[in-house]
Amino acid sequence: MNLEDIETVKSILSKPQKIVIVPHKNPDGDAVGSSLGLYFFLKSKGQEVSVIVPNEYPKFLKWMPGNDTVLNFERENSESKKLLEEATVIFTLDFNDLSRVGQLEKVLKTKKADFIMIDHHQQPGDYATVTYSDVSMSSTCEMVYNFIEKLGEVDKITKEIATNLYTGIMTDTGSFKYRSTSSRTHRVVADLIDRGADNMEIHRQVFDTNPPSRLHLLGVALSNMVILSEYRTAYITLSQEELDAHNFKKGDTEGFVNYGLTLEGITFAAIFIENREESIIKISFRSVGDFSVNTFARNHFNGGGHDNAAGGRSEMSMEETVQKFIAVLEEYKNQLNL
Ligand code: 5GP
Ligand code: MN
Q1: What is the pLDDT of residues 216-245, one digit of tens each?
Q2: Of 125, 133, 172, 280, which is most buried with the most CB atoms under 10 A?
Q3: What are the sequence ranges of the domains in the chain?
Q4: Which atom of ligand 1 is found nearest the CA of 294?
Q5: How far is the CA of 48 from the centre of ligand 2 (A)?
């Protein structure tokens, strides 16, 4: 965000606005944390603000401060539409292309308002009045902290804001271990703790509230894991039957894909999860090192994300999807064995 953008934002926020904050579909900790962190900040400036998520998010995020104020576009459709109709400013957080908001895309595409994008994914679209995009950032939550700092208002960060921002930085960095975790990330997090984020409690709420069925599902995922040493790759499949047998709820498979990368010599991991309701196989890709899963997902599985963490989808059957994956891997054999 350059000086001109900061002045534009200051000028927009100096007047009373009707603000809607929208994160991406299937919101994760960073999407919900950045939205709610920004929500409390803008409220404290006297603005009218709402957060509208495109669809449901996991139970392990439902304790976050402000959770009760969040509207679900699928469930609270008419109320959400009304707020969007009246909105004068729309913040889009943790995504950079309007195709990432599901059914909300149609509404946002035709909407006349000042859009402000805050995001750390690659190849941002050009729909916003102000685009704050930085792929080197650990998380959108770290960027919301920067955003508040650039406005000269770090002192407005309350315990509620700090808790939300801490949560998203923690989840998007794999608890401060991914490559994008910088010394600056740690400084931001230290400041958030000073401002009231209870780091141990946040970690516990997100990671240590599993129902037994989720650990049993993890057991199935790990038994289904296939290792392709020649491509330094490991992949997991989960069918709809397997999910149903373990009382699957949104978010239950979060983090499963990472187990592949804990194998010695494996640098590329994938998980294929059947979603019969949407007739798709949802895919997550992870890598360590230089192999770009963003490029891989973009080129072959209608997706994208970051260099080391991306997602995509397939409309073929599980069997065909996995066959295609293995066929495509052959093209990348050299890159994968560098
Ligand atoms: P996850 O595998 O945890 O769902 O997502 C990993 C990363 O890839 C996240 O940054 C997420 O925003 C991005 N991502 C996941 N699915 C998709 C997709 O279908 N399209 C795009 N463009 N990005 C995705
Ligand atoms: Mn993020």
Answers
A1: 999 999 999 999 999 999 999 999 999 999
A2: 172
A3: 3-207, 212-336
A4: 8
A5: 25
